[in-house]
Amino acid sequence: MWLCITGRRKKQVRQSHNRKMDNGINNTGILISVVICTYNRSAYIEDALESLTSQTLARDQYEILIIDNMSTDATAGICQSFIDRHPGFDIRYYLEPNRGLSYARNRGISESTSPIICYMDDDAEAVPHYLSSLVEFFSAHPEAVGAGGRVVPKYPRGEEPVWMSRYLNGFIGKVDFGKEIKPFSGKMKFPAGCNMIYKKSILEKAGGFNTKLTFRSDDKFIFYQVLQISRLIYYVPDAKVIHNIDEKRLGISNFRTLFLKTGNEEKIRVLGEAGSIGYLKKLFEYLIKCLGSCVIYCQFLLKGQTQKGRYLVLSQWYTLSGFLKKEVFVR
């Protein structure tokens, strides 16, 4: 059932397995679309939306698209209530029945009406000048096809775990390459999925996100696909978000699951892009990283930072294990 909600008035518009909620705002003049792909994030989704309705960019210049990937908690109700309380904003909610983050990201591409698509996580909060900084960047760099902003983690008790180190920044999505705009290259790797921006035209030209990747590696996949078309993807430090890290994410069980899934989805990605040769190269890379993590563990040990070394070794071991597994299910 596809429902269109405009203010307090609800009307059935057509039969479908999809659902849509919006405020009926005219999209003329929309400069940028913010896509929030969500799944069971009732604890944070309202704060994420609140940060986007507190932007310095004029509200008629951006739209907010919520792509709900079949949440089973209160996410849908929270989103509907938020839309009802903010009738002056172009906020639309879509229910994406195909499970997997890449399906949700692709739905965001198809539903957006602007030339620039900004993906922000459902547990992130954008700083007030977030969107204006991106609009200004693309205006000053019309040749750019993509961007990635800063991501600053926010921990439950305000303190970084004792086992955290720079080698695990990817686990919490931390991104900070300084205060200058610069192209992504070398050790900068790629824009984190928590805060990545691409022109809609380049996403369509690249073929969208790989729906075989359901939970991890989607940001790496699209980065490499876009690179085949253009290398003009930049780090934009002023486009900053605060990434809420909950207790569950920091637990050892979730730590294990995420790295197992990372390795498993990397296998899917490299097999699809480079076949058996790519698989063997990545396997060799992971073996080297496992050995390297043991060396770094010894360095941490000498500094009395055993936990940092232990978690680093575990991260590489779980990633390798996931790479070798046939499938790792996360939902």
Give a quick set of tags describing it.
disordered N terminus; 331 residues; globular; two-stranded antiparallel ribbon; 41% helix; 10 helices; ten-stranded mixed sheet; alpha/beta; Spore Coat Polysaccharide Biosynthesis Protein SpsA, Chain A; 2 domains
Task: Write out the CATH superfamily name of the largest domain.
Answer: Spore Coat Polysaccharide Biosynthesis Protein SpsA, Chain A
Give the % helix.
40-55%
Mean pLDDT: 90
Amino- and carboxy-terminal Cα gap:
24 Å
**Tally of helical runs:** 10
Domain module tally: 2
Shape: globular
Looking at the overall shape, the CATH architecture of the largest domain is: Alpha-Beta Complex
The secondary structure category is alpha/beta
- What are the segments in which pLDDT stays under 50 over at least 5 consecutive residues? 1-19, 22-27
Profile the largest sheet: 10 strands, mixed
Order of helices and strands: EEEEHEHEHEEHEHEEHHEHHH
Total DSSP E strands: 12
CATH topology term of the largest domain:
Spore Coat Polysaccharide Biosynthesis Protein SpsA, Chain A
CATH level 1 class label of the largest domain: Alpha Beta
Radius of gyration, in angstroms, nearest whole number: 20 Å
Measured by DSSP, the beta-strand proportion falls in 15-25%
